[in-house]
UniProtKB/TrEMBL annotation:
EC number(s) given by UniProt: 3.2.1.23
Keywords: Glycosidase, Hydrolase
InterPro entries referenced in this protein's UniProt entry, alphabetically: Beta_galactosidase_C (IPR013739), Beta_galactosidase_Trimer (IPR013738), Class_I_gatase-like (IPR029062), GH (IPR017853), Glyco_hydro_42 (IPR003476), Glyco_hydro_42_N (IPR013529), Glyco_hydro_b (IPR013780)
Designated name of the protein: Beta-galactosidase
Organism: Georgenia alba
Organism taxonomic ancestry: Bacteria, Bacillati, Actinomycetota, Actinomycetes, Micrococcales
Record field: catalytic activity: Hydrolysis of terminal non-reducing beta-D-galactose residues in beta-D-galactosides
């Protein structure tokens, strides 16, 4: 999992540049503007396949040669793509089997992007060959800092064609070895599904196991395995291209751009194949700052805490939603510094010049259609560029220390959301975000890690919706408690094994002894129906007892060694346990939260855990004031970011120098942060 980051002198600044869309004289205007904005990094060739290879037997690098030469002339840092982010029309025309077959069994024709079948031998051969040709031609190019394979792997729908069916059967034979083991894993005695030959297996789709869409399946085992398989199938495309690159250039790091909390791919299965992690930051939904922070921490966790890149963000607006608001003044700077605070060593845009046509012609860009440099967007981009230039290498390579971990698991995500019988509105990301936001509000540093991660460095471990227990995760969580740490699990955790079969024991299954509790039954009610949960400790502790409005899912708990911390206030289980705490001999605690608490209730529980370990941040009571830390060679850099709509005044909790202004700040001195303000303090 060791990361291999590009060697740079500063936080890289720039983004996707597609000069093949414009005449040569526009390039000159663009590079003049880039210089004015302190932009030194260009990502080239992401969607260049159709002009690099006009037919199967012909390569034409003349246009890309000119594009790369102009970047070299500008002394740019170059991120060079393999051009396989979208296949060319001739490929689907000549080899129609390369197009995907959708969930309903329809073979698609050419169009869009994310449109190839990853199991197609033709696509595998031609994409790897193109990556190899590009690497051969441009290896050693001055300024080349990284190779960029593909683009935002995934797409919808996945492919269900015959090539994928055949590859799936091979994948299953490698995973299970025998049909007996597969039948056991999939519980095929149910509904007479016993397989007697691997050739009988077809992908789970609307034509086979599904109804009412991809999340409703008769057999969770086969659907879960197909999701695993498809993630691996796309990973093979990446690995093939990376291998073609490294055959001629083993020295330059290779990555691809992820999409944060993207359901379609298990990024933990991909992580070991990346030299460094990167992702595209396009926040949506309630309270973007904590959602972005979670995605940053998740991406950083892919490479065991090493710095990552923000490969894309918009300087102003997106172009693919019902409403596409522009970033308000100061927000671009604020969100960019937030990414640096959480571990980013590059802040890049999509894109540098606005496309003239097609689906993203109104997507925000550094330069608009007129190429103006007197717009608010350009002025903010240029001001941030100058700040990053002056900032230099102050945090390059710096880590983000954390004593709190949140477990993240794609298998639990997938399994929980394709399972009937609990609640369709209990979604993995929103549930995890609810707990993460309570940590973010409390100013605590967090690592978001896989269930296989080393947990010995953490005092507090949260496992929201850990539906599936794999390997020795239950034992390693118990070890955290045995050495005095705190562990929290939530409703619908510890229910199934790695095959998605229920444990033949009381929930929360192998977590029951650790939690000191069993789930007697689980109620599920319509959204908007709440059950008040009274939360309080029998001994003095941080925070008075409160009442939290719980919703969606209600585990009725029977303590078996645990203390009751929260009780239901309504329905036939009024007075029964909803939240418990099990104190162990080693001084550690295991909390089980059997319902979906509202925001105040979630925050109350989180603060009990943090206070116990002295981890509550200095500004935990200042809404939307974010604190983050990066550390290198014993030097700490503290970031304060005001996401609130109002100014805040707080005492500096440490002394140091503000690296953005050069101003000396003494501990205890009053700091005033206007809305969107940022302070970056090099701690004494």
């Amino acid at each position: 999992m060791t990361a291999r980051l590009p060697r740079t002198e500063k936080i890289l600044y720039g983004g996707d540049y597609n000069p093949e869309q414009w005449p040569r004289d526009v390039w000159e205007e663009d590079y003049a503007a880039f210089g004015a904005a302190s932009i030194e990094t260009v990502t080239l060739g992401v969607f260049a396949w159709s002009h690099l290879q006009p037919d199967e037997d012909t390569y034409d690098f003349s246009r890309l040669d000119a594009i790369v030469a102009r970047a070299v002339e500008a002394d740019a840092r170059i991120v060079l793509a393999t051009a396989t982010g979208a296949m060319p029309p001739w490929l689907a025309h000549r080899h129609p089997e390369v197009a995907r077959t959708d969930f309903e069994g329809r073979r698609h024709v050419y169009g869009g992007r994310h449109n190839h079948c990853p199991s197609s031998p033709v696509f595998q051969r031609l994409s790897a060959a193109l990556a190899g040709r590009i690497a051969e031609r441009y290896v050693g190019t001055p300024g080349l800092v990284a190779w960029h394979v593909g683009n935002e792997y995934g797409g919808a729908p996945p492919c269900y064609c015959e090539s994928c069916a055949a590859a799936f059967r091979v994948w299953l034979q490698e995973r299970y070895g025998t049909l007996g083991r597969l039948n056991e894993a999939w519980s095929t005695m149910f509904w007479s599904h016993l397989y007697t030959d691997f050739e009988q297996i077809v992908p789970p789709s609307a034509l086979s196991e599904h109804w009412r869409g991809p999340n409703h399946t008769a057999f969770q085992g086969i659907t879960l395995d197909y999701m695993r398989f498809f993630s691996d199938a796309l990973l093979r495309n990446y690995v093939d291209e990376k291998a073609a690159i490294q055959a001629v250039d083993p020295g330059t790091p290779v990555t691809t751009n992820f999409m944060g909390m993207f359901r379609g791919l298990d990024y933990h299965r991909w992580a070991e194949h990346l030299d460094f992690a990167s992702w595209d930051n396009y926040p949506r939904g309630e309270h973007a700052p904590s959602r972005m922070a979670l995605a940053h921490d998740l991406t950083r966790g892919l490479k065991d805490g090493a710095p990552f890149w923000v490969m894309e963000q918009t300087p102003s607006t997106t172009a693919n939603r019902d409403a596409n608001p522009v970033k308000r003044p100061g927000v671009l700077r604020l969100w960019s510094w937030q990414s640096v605070a959480h571990g980013a060593d590059a802040v890049l845009y999509f894109q540098l010049r606005q496309s003239q046509g097609a689906s993203e012609k109104y997507h925000g860009a550094v330069l608009d259609h007129a190429g103006r440099t007197d717009t608010r967007t350009f002025r903010e981009v240029a001001a941030l560029g100058k700040e990053l230039e002056d900032f230099g290498d102050a945090t390059l390579g710096a880590r983000t220390p954390a004593r709190v971990a949140v477990l993240w698991d794609w298998d639990s995500w997938w399994a929980a959301e394709i399972t009937d019988g609990v609640h369709r509105r209990l979604t993995y990301v929103e549930h995890a975000l609810r707990w993460y936001r309570a940590l973010w509000d409390a100013n605590v540093g967090v690592d978001v890690v896989p269930v296989t991660a080393d947990l010995t460095r953490y005092d507090v471990v949260l496992a929201p919706l850990l539906h599936m227990l794999k390997g020795d995760v239950a034992e390693r969580l118990a070890a955290v408690v045995e050495r005095g740490g705190s562990v929290l699990a939530t409703c619908w955790s510890g229910r199934v094994d790695e095959d998605d079969n229920a444990f033949l024991m009381d929930p929360p299954g192998p977590l029951a002894a650790l939690m000191g509790v069993r789930v007697e039954e689980t109620d599920s009610l319509d959204p908007g129906t709440v059950n008040p949960v009274t939360l309080g400790l029998s001994e003095p502790g941080p925070g008075e007892a409160i009442v939290s409005d719980a919703e969606l899912v209600f585990d009725v708990l029977v303590p078996e060694g645990a203390d009751v911390v929260g009780t239901y206030g309504a329905d036939f289980y009024a007075g029964r346990a909803a939240v418990t705490r099990h104190r162990h001999d080693g001084g550690g605690e295991a909390w089980y939260v059997g319902t979906v608490l509202d925001r105040p209730g979630t925050a109350w529980v989180v603060r009990q855990l943090l206070e116990r370990h002295g981890l509550l941040g200095p500004y935990a009571d200042v809404p939307d004031l974010e604190l983050a830390v990066r550390e290198r060679e014993g030097r700490r850099t503290v970031f304060l970011l005001n996401h609130a709509a109002e100014a805040v005044e707080v005492p500096a909790h440490v002394g140091g120098t503000d690296l953005l202004t050069g101003r000396r700040i003494d501990q205890g001195e009053t700091l005033r942060l206007e809305p969107t303000d940022v302070v970056v303090l090099r701690e004494d």
